Amino acid sequence: MKNLFPFILCFFLFTGHLQANDGYKLWLDYQPIERSELHQTVSELFSGIFFFGKNPSHEAIKKELELASQGFLKQAPKYSADRFQTTQLWIGTRQELSQFLGLEHQAKIKALGEEGYWRGSIIHEGKSYYALIGNSPVSTLYASFDFLKSIQSNTFDKDTEKTDYPKIKLRMLNHWDNLDRTVERGYAGFSIWDWHRLPGYVDPRYIDYARANASLGINAVSLTNVNANAWILREDFVEKVKVLADLFRPYGIKVFLTARFSAPIEMGNLETADPLDEQVRSFWKERVDMIYEAIPDFGGFLVKANSEGQPGPHEYNRDHAEGANMLADALAPHGGIVIWRAFVYSHEIDEDRHKQANLEFEPLDGKFRDNVIVQVKNGAIDFQPREPFHPLFGAVKETNLGMEFQITQEYLGQATQLVYLGTMWEEILMDKTYRPKPSSTVARVIDGSDTEQNLTLMAGVSNIGTDRNWTGHLFGQANWYAFGQLAWDPDRSAAEISEEWIKLTFGQKPEIQAKIKEIMLASHEAAVNYMTPLGLHHLMGRSHHYGPGPWVEGGRADWTSLYYHRADSLGIGFDRTETGSGALNQYANEISKTWSDPKKTPEKFLLWFHHLPWDYQMQSGNTLWEEIGLHYDKGVKTAREMRSNWRELEKLVDSERFSHVDQLLGVQIEEAEWWRNSSLLYFQTFAKRPFPDSIEQPEGDLEFYKQQRFPFAPGIRPNW
Ligand code: BDP
Description:
Keywords: Carbohydrate metabolism, Glycosidase, Hydrolase, Polysaccharide degradation, Xylan degradation. Residues 471-693 form the Glycosyl hydrolase family 67 C-terminal domain. It is an enzyme of class 3 (hydrolase). Homodimer. The protein is 37% helix and 10% strand. It has 22 helices and 15 strands. Strand 6 (170-174), helix 6 (205-216) and strand 7 (220-222) form a beta-alpha-beta unit. The structure holds beta-D-glucopyranuronic acid. Beta-D-glucopyranuronic acid binds at residues 184-185, 226-227, 304, 308, 343, 382-383, 410, 717.
């Protein structure tokens, strides 16, 4: 057995991406460089690295270079003792390298802002050095990650300089992690925050988490569920949080916590949490001071208030601004901020839920402190497979607005289905708001270029858990990746991001590239088609939000499917025009006027805004009923194509990842069929029309489909 070892070793060395791969390394899987020219260049650079200055982010860079060098070249990098002789690669901040940069060059780098960086070649006394230069230690780390990424994706060119900087200030993950380690709407195992063993035991995974985020430029994280537990503000928990904050600091990641509005009652023994009460204000001030004592660069609080039963200022007849400002005042002396969520809806309101956030927040424009950001979900309902953009974007002028996307696929097949969200986010970011400027888009509102806002934010609800591959479904990693890239630059194309992720994750082979890209780019539209086509929404089963439940009753107050689709013998859809709820009027005139006519409404949003007869004529010439059938059917067909495309890669991808994705695609096809059959059979009970001939005729018995199959889906809110 013993003498087989060298052969086995060679086999593993040369099979590259065909090695068993459990996905743990994410997109930071530094595989051996195949192109000899690049190998040569990189070996040279890694043979003489010199760091200007000393700081904790440099330690983080060192760690990364070591991992990369082992992966790329199978050897450790070499550091030089002096900056010239044996040196090839210079790493440091602009200030540290200033003597080697001309004035013009310095000014150019400086203009990129604190988080911007430059990388390229510098000639000094006849010798060329490659340099990674940031305006701060953390942006030097960003430069290093970008440098490594270019090697990994085989695009590194020593002679081309590259500059970059983030367009959005806070690029943040929101974990919906509970202190007992369950994760609300989390499908990848338990929370990675091991509260019980912190602060004594530090899981090495925390560092890998920080590396992954920093490689994307994610610079903030809120650790705890928005349905908050006040305990996280206790001193012993803050000690645990401090350990994470200390680990994340060199990676440029600030820690935030969720603040439970009623904490003064629950832990301060007060009788009220009224934001204007002096004792309440001192409670928060003291808590905040205590946190900053432990974590001097603490980010601040993320707050869900007066929504879905969470406590908030309304209990005391105060508004959101009074609630948020009270916390903002406690945080301001330390430079902290409040992120106040606009996801509000109550069970009592007799209004279209679509309207509530605008009704509550528009009148408060200008009343929030400068260190408050109002965080708005991408759409007005709730992370549906496809939603029109939220009408708050563009509606307020003097409020910092941040975007909240959901990376975890609560309504999009969870960790069972392959749905690339980059395309969905791109679609939303590019949507025209027509406000504040006629040319404004959602991206221009949230990156602050069309508004006066001084704080900008893009947050993503995390899909990370203790599963070995972090995200449950391997392709969930692509969504984490795409979120980070869009938060850095909301103008990036989702297709380009997918190409990049595929290269980093599966290697360079063009066949792999093409097939996986095709799968990814088709996947979101497929899910929309087999779940909620043509503007239908919230047809998922109650509470688990996984499988279909268009029949789920409960009346308006329960916000169940019947409330949203409004199917009856005459037609289907939610009238949000003036004859209905009027929610459409919350958009700019250019949208509300045009879309009040169904013929001028994009068909993808048709039933979101209109209740239309089953025989309504669509652009294709088909009736609405036929078109619904065709969309559901198309969704199923695309899911099947995704699997046949994947199967063509069997010999090109390692068997571990191949089989993981293949099996899940099998489940996805079954779920897509289940969605199509049950939804169409159900809607037919109203439409009373035959299915179009060209589709596969839905099989099965509606009563059977109505039995909820998923009562134990993970991630369900514990109190539901
Ligand atoms: C919904 C989830 C629920 C969250 C809520 C929120 O179903 O679990 O608590 O959003 O965003 O999508 O607060």
